[in-house]
């Protein structure tokens, strides 16, 4: 699909901006989608860099975890009222919590790519294409509990444990989730495994057929 040029006279109207934005989204959708295996075939020189990248991202993950630990300790010792503690914990969830999940997702993908460079079969007979299809299923489409918008996240009651106050966060941009009450979550495959007690293979098959 070709990009359409919009000639600027003085200023763009809201209709022009909206039209341009829709064109951009359509163009993005028209781009080819490659699996991790296909990307490695296109750029084979990346294979030797994966272990180093995994180490760098794991160090970043440890840094974020330490920041969260220090901030939670500070809140516990310095903030006396319950509302104040709740507010700052929510702030950490939306900021450092979301960043941590993105890093975790990136590490998981790098490790999966590393296995592909060794020509290892992932999780039994499950193919890379099936895994990618499963990972593309939005987590929010599997949740029956009401969800509310909170910044870039969706918030609701945790489906993994009983609770009265919502602590379950879904991050649509990365299609990951995390419950800050029971400290469980991950990508959509992990979500199904936790929710139904499925194995990795069973979760992938469930998502493909969903």
What does this structure look like?
It contains seven helices and five strands; from the N terminus they run H-H-H-H-H-E-E-E-E-E-H-H. The protein is of the alpha+beta class. Strands 1-2-3-4-5 form a five-stranded antiparallel sheet. Helix 5 packs across helix 7 and helix 6 crosses helix 7. The chain is globular and about 55 Å long. The N terminus is likely disordered.
* Alpha carbon gap, first and last residue: 31 Å
Report the uncertain regions.
1-9
User: How many individual helices?
Assistant: 7
Rg estimate, integer Å: 21 Å
Short overview:
The protein has helices spanning 14-30, 36-42, 50-78, 82-117, 128-135, 188-196, 200-208; strands at residues 148-150, 153-156, 168-171, 176-179, 184-187. It is 55% helix and 9% strand.
